[in-house]
Structure formats: C-alpha cells, structure tokens
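Thread: quick sanity check before group meeting

JM: Hey all, I'm pulling together slides for Thursday and realized we never actually wrote out the predicted structure for the chain we discussed last week. Dropping the sequence here so it's in one place. If anyone has concerns about the input, flag it before I start.
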Amino acid sequence: MVVVDSHAHLDLMYEKLKSGPGSAANIYQKLAEESPAKLKIVFSMSKPSNWSSRDKFIERGVSFTYGLHPSFASNHYPQEVKDALRHWAAHEDVVGIGEFGLDYSYNEYEPYHQEQMFIAQVTVALELKKPFVLHLRNAKRGRYLGSEGDAYRAALDLLRRYVPYNYVFVVHCWSADLETARDFNYYFENVYFSFSPMLILSPYLNLDEVVRRLPLVSVYTIFFKKKMTLSPLVSRSTESTYGRD
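JM (edit): ok, ran it. Output follows.
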C-alpha cells in the first residue's frame, strides 16, 4: 500500500518556522521519520503570500498543489489569482490546483466573491489540465433555512456549468449528506471523496452511511495527527490519505 500525505500545508508550516527554531529541512525530516517507507508527499500551497516557499523543498522530490483557500479569498481578485496560478502551477511538480472552494461557515463569507474565485481557479485547472482539490463548508447550523448557505450545492451548480463530467477532482473532508454525495458522483465520474475524523467524531452527520453507499474506489480516508513530534516546532496537523497509487 502506498501512503500519500496529500494535504500537508507546507506554506503555513514554513510561515510558523521562519522565525522559530526550525527550517524547511526540519519539516521534511520530521514528516519522513513519522511516515511509512512508501510515502508520497503533496504539499498544499493555499496562501499566496507564501507560494514562493516551495523553493525550499523542490530538490527533495515532493509534489505540490497550488490554490487560494477561501479563508484568504477576500484579500484577492480573480484575475490576480489566475495570473499567479498560471505562473506557479505550470511547474511539473505541481500535480493539481487547490485547495480552493466555498466556505460559508464564516460570519461574513461573501458568497459572490468566493464563487468568482472558485470559477477563476477552475478555469486555470482546466487550462493546465490538472486535477483540483475542493474545500467546501456549509453555513453553521441555525443561520440559514433551506438551500441558502449550502456550499456543496452551490459548488455542484458551478461545477456542472464549467467542468467536464469526466474531469478528476477531490472534495476533501466531506461533511455533506448521502444525497449530495450521490449527486456529485452522478454528474462527475472521476470525483473522489476524502473524510476527516468527523467520520467517527460527528455521528449526527451520518458520514458512515455516505462511505458505505459510495463506490469504494472513490473514497479516501484522512487521518489528522494533531500530536506529531513536529510539535512544538509547528502545531499544524497533516493529512495522510490512503488510496490508489
């Protein structure tokens, strides 16, 4: 079995270590020490101000995804992000675009702006013919009624408008219901779903039912190691995805 660390936030880890007792080499060494022999690391570069930190790692044979996380979307504009992504994501070691998406869990989540950033990054992924990683979060319970605040449905509408049915992408940390998962799987034959510890820790979401009902080949499991020996160097967790090579 190949273990893929598919979602290590290199940029955020390095940002913390730049002024601390660590370095890019320390991060990689610690990850390698605590991981199985057959490890593939994909660093998720989700904050544009840190995108150039990839240069600290390129000689170590890792891969990257580049994208603008929705939590940083309000500070940027679609054309700006498209231009920057076209530059950084054109590198051969960038295997995908992301994570990006729609996050309606903030108090002021600016849905229109997030959707424009979503479209911009999908556009670049299609141009570069690279898969993408989606971050989707619904509005917090009790804030909205009906479909308003449903990031998954809003994303599905955008995907159906802009993305071919056979395009490859991942929705990470899935937390929506079975009906929504089936709709994603119906409209897109190469969509993959990853699941966080909410699979176990949040039984009210019924995510175990989603996993049981989805085609097994499309399901990945994510484990967060909150207490790695990387601490106290860095308190950011990483994700290890067990799936197809």
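AS: nice. The two ends are 8 Å apart (CA to CA). The chain is about 35% helix and 20% strand.
JM: adding both to the slides.
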